[in-house]
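Students often ask why we bother encoding 3D structure as a string. The short answer is that it lets us treat folding as translation between two languages. Here is a chain of 118 residues written in the first language.
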Amino acid sequence: MELVIQPTSETCGQACIAMITSKDIEEVIKDMKTNRSTSIGQLIEILDFYGVKHAEKNTRISKKNPVPYEYSILTVHTNAGYTHWTLLYDNKYYDPEFGLIDGEYTYGKITSFLGIYQ
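And here it is in the second language, the structure alphabet:
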């Protein structure tokens, strides 16, 4: 997995997709038809478009599902007050805004995840 840093403050979703697919982020932005913030629905649509297998829906972190799958797109409510997409892969956080994080994630609260299947 190669870290992709988001080119703007609103392209974390596109950066996560670029990391998953090994595509250039500009190509992902073009295929998604947006360089703005993205919803989980838009991320699922582009994963389907690229043929990436994934969970059917976003799963909330709860007592029933306390930890994300080892390979997941994470929904983070950041300490700064905005929602952000981050990738969890091989026990590391590939955060398109904050960089590669090996250890505890401290930039916000992870509230849900979308499992990616290899």
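Translate back mentally: The first strand starts at residue 59 and ends at 60. Keep this in mind for the problem set.
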